[in-house]
């Protein structure tokens, strides 16, 4: 059995589980079923950023006629870690130099840097470069993303599956009930956390504030020169050849991080510090404590008794193994364990 998970991020940059599905195989049909159900049951919001593996089945489903996972309903982006593994499987290189270059190209925030890595990839692996060049860069490279992915480049599978550790131990019905109770506990913890922050009068989450503090230490390494109309030039104190331009009017920096992560980069923070400007209005609302609180505000309705569950049609019912009276010791224990594999259909 496989467990499929769809997840988002909350304001504290923590994984926010949206939907789960148990399936025998992961195929084009299960992807279609899962993605369609998310649109029916979880969210009908337009303009979502969908980060997936670069897999032909997912691509086919997303681009099917009538799909609500293509533009303008959603913008598909690819997980960079998966893309790199796929690249190294298709174009093996024992020293992993080219895989490293693909990772660097995808993570760069500046287009010039991206172009330079692509040039290196072309020299080292012309076939690999051809394959990569066929994938639209805005779907896998941060430098070509317009801020839709908020700087999120990877699907963190560990974090996603951490919420359902007990799932593998008890199959089907039991697993689903356990998962539900774990979700409820996790939501309760995040809810009281967000309520605490709101009562303290915090505007942004602790993670955001910590990031600010850490970044402020590094921001002292720049010489800030005001230019015209809210633009500033920054030079590193000891490396004068490195220059960045921050434009506060449209919250951008030539380093690319400010607009792509929707969070002030080191250069913008240096400007705020020098000009005594409050940096908080330049942080996207999605990181605010208010958003954080709203995310976990809803209550969980209890799961009704199994007898009240609606019957599904066209799905086989699996009955538990019959436990024979004669079975003793280990055999009896094994049989009991098997009897837990009941599927409500
Ligand atoms: Zn910058």
Outline:
With about 350 residues, the protein is α+β, with helices and mostly antiparallel strands.
Secondary-structure element series: EEHEHEHHHHHHHEEEEHHHH
- Percent of residues in helices: 40-55%
Q: How would you classify the helix and strand content by structural class?
A: alpha+beta
How many angstroms does the end-to-end distance come to?
15 Å
So how many helices? 13
Keywords: Metal-binding, Zinc, Zinc-finger
InterPro entries: MULE_transposase_dom (IPR018289), Znf_PMZ (IPR006564), Znf_SWIM (IPR007527)
Pfam family, one: SWIM
Protein name: SWIM-type domain-containing protein
Describe the protein.
It contains 13 helices and eight strands. The protein has helices at 28-42, 56-62, 80-90, 97-107, 111-124, 126-133, 157-162, 172-200, 206-218, 257-261, 266-275, 289-296, 329-338; strands at residues 2-9, 15-23, 48-52, 74-78, 222-226, 231-236, 243-247, 252-253. It is an alpha+beta fold and 345 residues long. The strands form three sheets. It has a four-stranded antiparallel β-sheet. Strands 1-2 form a two-stranded antiparallel ribbon. A two-stranded parallel ribbon has the order 3-4. Helix 4 (97-107) packs antiparallel against helix 5 (111-124) and helix 5 packs across helix 6. The protein is globular and about 80 Å long. Residues 332-345 have low confidence and may be disordered. Helix 2 (56-62) links the parallel strand 3 (48-52) and strand 4 (74-78). The chain folds into four domains: 2-160, no CATH class; 164-202 and 290-303; 206-287, no CATH class; 312-338, no CATH class. Helix content is 43%, strand content 13%. The chain binds zinc ion.
